[in-house]
Structure prediction request, 102 residues.
Amino acid sequence: MEAAICRWDIDAERSINYNSLEPLLQIIKSKKCPSAQLWAVWALANLTNVSSSKYCLLVKEEGGIPLLREIFEDMSKEKMLKELAGRTLAVCDIHSQEKGLW
Prediction:
């Protein structure tokens, strides 16, 4: 599963509309299945990259920033997982600065 996720286009638009990111955040919190955690972080990276105005706000409001920081700063995490978490944090930071949020 991890090899497949690494090949997905992070810039691709999906016809998915989340009203809440809580299901993804719950998967990220669970450390029992690294592949599922990678998928959930990839999904956040994709959503915030493609639709930052909607999803960066949801990431912040629903408590995703601390979860992503924890992954990004954890030296034991896989490189791809850390890169995706870092990318999501960076996109949300840029979006918040542009919009005067946070």
